[in-house]
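Revision sheet: structure tokens.
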Amino acid sequence: MEVRFGTDVLRRLKTDPEYDGGYAEAIVKAYRRRVRFIEQAPDERDFYAMNGLGFERLKGNRDHQYSMRLNDQWRLILEFAGKAPNKMVVIVGIEDYH
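Predicted:
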């Protein structure tokens, strides 16, 4: 899938190996792993198929967004744009769920 980034910080976390954006090293590594996984996935069904991702749609005023686990505490927040076969993922944030 094509990936876009909601902020320059998120883009730099992916592209600049020296940049940590103020996050712990483990979070940055998990983030980069997840972005690579998203890029290689043909569509979001692969996200649901991997139980360890904890991929889910958010609720309430965020029901247009999805989250994916980085670790027990941190989640990657995503939105989808476009329609298949040109659907893309927009990474909008990294959030502490605790």
